Amino acid sequence: MTTATAVTAASTGNAGARVLRVLLTQRIALLAVLIVAVVITFFVQDAGGYLTAPYDFDYMSASLINAVPLAMLGLAELLVILSGRGGIDLSVGAIVSLAGMIFGFAYGEWGWPLWAAIVLTALFGALLGAVNGFLVSYIGFPALIATLATYYAYKSLAIVINNQEPISTPPIQKLFSISESVELPLFGQYVPDVPLGIFTFLLPTVVAVWLLLARTTYGRRLYAIGTNDVAARWSGLPVRDTRFKAYVYAGVLSGLVAVVTVGQFASARPDAGVSGNGMALPAITIAVLGGVAITGGIGRVSGVVLATLLIVWLNAGILLAFVGNEGSQYQLLALGAVLVFAALLNGLTNRRYGGTA
């Protein structure tokens, strides 16, 4: 091997190592690459006639309706996982169910104005989240046990509060309009219509959570206690109060998701957030895939949003790859594989580079 060849090989190896380091440490870059890979894969399969329906930009845009509740609950999990000490919330789906029933009563039966019913539902979600936060932060229960217990309690209350019956009064049915797609101003003739919930619920939530974490004292405290709550306590930070508020905020987001699901189903269903595999596990998967360290203290809003897009568009493609409802079964397999992949990736990154950015 000549000197020039050796230098070229070394340069290529160094470049490859740098690319690998960027992909492992910059979760945003990795997720962007994975999203492009997934979309191209299904485009190629569509062109080859292997899918049961077209996988195009219109279909991708329509599938974003599923991104609204998933991303919002992923952000809820981001907040509680950031708080450290094994922070997790298994009850978010049950909160969606119970808060959705409260919204159904307020708006569908009691005749409250829409804005007042939404505020009530968000506050009720905050109350349910406060129960979780109190058990974890002040009583000292492990988050896994505390939120699993409240999951069962909230799920049961959602079922019995209206004798297992959904609320589908005319005002509730009219809310289906929030699930419709709208044309983007100025760009409508160039891009597909986008679900209205993206603008009315998801984008405001993303901005609010980003501001909370990146521009407030509370956000800095949350990262600090998640990284090392002992050091944070010795520094005079209110560790318990900060962790408690994370669960309260997660409850608020879950309450807002309840409103979204009522609109999507045109009905307040007692099983809205817990039917099938529920909403909690996909939300946790999205958070971990988005680069949120399960040990706490590491995680970004942008990672959760991109992870949601990856999961939604992957699931949308899987549905078209199989006949009937067989695709929904493979979605579960894909979700499990993605969770294992994300956990392994986080572990590898922590060992080699000390975490993601």
From TrEMBL:
Q: What GO CC terms are in its UniProt record?
A: plasma membrane
User: Is Transmembrane found in the keyword set?
Assistant: yes
- Which GO molecular function terms does the record list? transmembrane transporter activity
Keyword tags: Cell membrane, Membrane, Transmembrane, Transmembrane helix
**How is this protein situated with respect to the membrane?**
Multi-pass membrane protein
| InterPro entries reported in the protein's UniProt record | ABC_transp_permease (IPR001851)
Record protein name field: Ribose transport system permease protein/erythritol transport system permease protein
